[in-house]
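Marked as duplicate of an earlier ticket. Keeping the data here for the record.
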Amino acid sequence: MKKMILSIAIALGSIGLISTPAMARETRSGAMSHRPTVEMRGHNHGPRVEKRSVRHMVPSVRPSVRPSVRPVSRPIGMRLSARPAGIVLNFGGVNYIYDNGIFYSTLNRGYEVIRPHVGMIVPSLPVGHTVIIRNNIRHFAHNGILYRPMRRGTSIVYRVEGFI
C-alpha cells in the first residue's frame, strides 16, 4: 500500500500537481526550490517551453505606415468632416495637411482636398509615384503632380514643381 501511495505521489509530482522532497532542486544560493528548471536552447533562442496566450501572438513590430499600400485618390474639392491623417505643412503662413500625395486645407470646421501650390515642400514621396526625366533632371510624378528632389540639411525633401 505504501508503495502505491508513493508511486502516485511521484507521478503527481512529476506532472507538477504536488511537490515532493525528491523533486526539489537546489538553487544557486543553496536554497531548495520546488519549481522545475527551464532548459535554455541557446543565448538567442529563449526558453524551450513558453506559455503564450492569444494576445501575445500579435507581432511585436507594428508597421509605421498605414496597412493599405495602394494610394488613396480623392478628387479636388472633396470635403471631409474629420481631420485626415497626415502631417501639417506651412506654406505662405497657411497650414495645410499632406497625406500620401493628397493636400488638404481647412474649410469651415472641415477639410477640403486642394491642388497644391507650386513651391510646397513635402518630406516624402507618395506611394505609387513614377520617375520622369525632364531636362536631364529626375522628377517624380503622382496623381498629376510633379515633384523634384532637393537637399535640405542632411535629408532629401521634395518640392512641388508643377502639374502634368
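See parent ticket for discussion. The two ends are 94 Å apart (CA to CA).
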